[in-house]
Design brief:
By secondary structure, this protein is an alpha+beta fold. Helices cover 15% and strands 25% of the residues. It contains 3 helices and 5 strands. It has a 5-stranded antiparallel β-sheet with strand order 1-2-3-4-5. β3 and β4 form a beta hairpin. The termini are far apart.
Protein backbone atom coordinates (compact mmCIF):
# COMPACT_ATOMS: atom_id res chain seq x y z
CA UNK A 1 0.00 0.00 0.00
CA UNK A 2 1.32 3.49 -0.85
CA UNK A 3 2.50 5.78 1.90
CA UNK A 4 0.08 8.74 2.14
CA UNK A 5 1.13 12.05 3.53
CA UNK A 6 -1.39 14.01 5.48
CA UNK A 7 -1.02 17.76 5.80
CA UNK A 8 -2.09 19.15 9.08
CA UNK A 9 -3.20 22.75 9.26
CA UNK A 10 -1.63 24.49 12.23
CA UNK A 11 -3.92 26.68 14.24
CA UNK A 12 -2.77 29.63 16.29
CA UNK A 13 0.64 30.05 14.70
CA UNK A 14 0.14 33.76 13.97
CA UNK A 15 0.50 36.71 16.29
CA UNK A 16 -2.46 37.09 18.64
CA UNK A 17 -4.60 40.15 18.01
CA UNK A 18 -5.37 42.54 20.82
CA UNK A 19 -8.95 43.75 21.34
CA UNK A 20 -7.97 47.16 19.92
CA UNK A 21 -6.87 45.59 16.62
CA UNK A 22 -10.03 43.51 16.41
CA UNK A 23 -12.17 46.60 17.06
CA UNK A 24 -10.39 48.56 14.31
CA UNK A 25 -10.69 45.71 11.81
CA UNK A 26 -14.42 45.51 12.54
CA UNK A 27 -14.99 49.25 12.01
CA UNK A 28 -15.57 49.88 8.31
CA UNK A 29 -14.23 53.46 8.23
CA UNK A 30 -10.83 52.50 9.69
CA UNK A 31 -10.61 48.72 9.08
CA UNK A 32 -7.19 48.90 7.38
CA UNK A 33 -5.63 51.40 9.76
CA UNK A 34 -4.21 49.28 12.59
CA UNK A 35 -0.42 49.46 13.03
CA UNK A 36 1.82 47.67 15.50
CA UNK A 37 3.26 49.79 18.30
CA UNK A 38 3.13 53.49 17.50
CA UNK A 39 3.82 53.08 13.78
CA UNK A 40 0.54 54.81 12.84
CA UNK A 41 1.85 57.99 14.46
CA UNK A 42 3.55 60.15 11.82
CA UNK A 43 7.34 60.02 12.08
CA UNK A 44 7.52 63.73 12.96
CA UNK A 45 5.21 63.13 15.92
CA UNK A 46 6.40 59.68 17.05
CA UNK A 47 9.14 60.94 19.38
CA UNK A 48 6.52 62.93 21.32
CA UNK A 49 4.70 59.70 22.26
CA UNK A 50 6.67 58.04 25.06
CA UNK A 51 5.50 54.86 26.74
CA UNK A 52 6.61 53.90 30.24
CA UNK A 53 6.85 50.28 29.06
CA UNK A 54 7.05 49.70 25.30
CA UNK A 55 6.00 46.06 25.81
CA UNK A 56 2.55 47.31 26.86
CA UNK A 57 2.13 49.38 23.68
CA UNK A 58 -0.22 47.22 21.61
CA UNK A 59 -1.00 49.27 18.55
CA UNK A 60 -2.03 52.56 17.03
CA UNK A 61 -4.37 54.13 14.50
CA UNK A 62 -4.00 57.36 12.52
CA UNK A 63 -7.63 58.41 12.80
CA UNK A 64 -7.22 61.68 10.94
CA UNK A 65 -5.76 60.04 7.82
CA UNK A 66 -8.33 57.24 7.86
CA UNK A 67 -11.47 59.41 8.05
CA UNK A 68 -10.42 62.77 6.58
CA UNK A 69 -12.15 62.05 3.24
CA UNK A 70 -15.35 60.98 5.02
CA UNK A 71 -15.48 63.96 7.39
CA UNK A 72 -13.42 66.73 5.76
CA UNK A 73 -14.96 69.61 7.72
CA UNK A 74 -15.44 67.90 11.07
CA UNK A 75 -13.07 67.99 14.04
CA UNK A 76 -11.20 64.69 14.30
CA UNK A 77 -8.85 63.01 16.75
CA UNK A 78 -5.35 62.61 15.38
CA UNK A 79 -4.48 59.17 16.74
CA UNK A 80 -5.71 56.32 18.92
CA UNK A 81 -3.20 54.27 20.87
CA UNK A 82 -3.69 51.03 22.80
CA UNK A 83 -1.51 50.74 25.88
CA UNK A 84 -1.94 48.05 28.52
CA UNK A 85 -5.48 47.26 27.29
CA UNK A 86 -6.55 50.91 27.52
CA UNK A 87 -7.28 53.16 24.56
CA UNK A 88 -5.89 56.67 24.47
CA UNK A 89 -6.96 59.28 21.95
CA UNK A 90 -4.37 61.86 20.99
CA UNK A 91 -4.80 65.25 19.40
CA UNK A 92 -2.69 68.30 18.87
CA UNK A 93 -3.56 71.47 20.68
CA UNK A 94 -2.40 74.89 19.52
CA UNK A 95 0.96 74.62 21.27
CA UNK A 96 1.73 71.47 19.20
CA UNK A 97 1.84 69.19 22.22
CA UNK A 98 0.04 65.90 22.23
CA UNK A 99 -2.83 65.62 24.67
CA UNK A 100 -3.88 62.17 25.79
CA UNK A 101 -7.44 61.35 26.67
CA UNK A 102 -8.32 57.99 28.12
CA UNK A 103 -11.64 56.83 26.74
CA UNK A 104 -11.79 53.25 27.90
CA UNK A 105 -10.22 51.95 31.06
CA UNK A 106 -10.44 48.29 30.12
CA UNK A 107 -11.00 46.74 26.71
CA UNK A 108 -11.91 43.39 28.19
CA UNK A 109 -14.30 44.54 30.86
Amino acid sequence: MANKRVRVKQVGTGVAKCAFQVAIENTEEVKDGFCQGKQAVKSADRSKVVAADNNKLQGSLDIDSQVKALYPNEPRWDYALSYDDKIYFLRYILQKHLRLTELSTNLHG
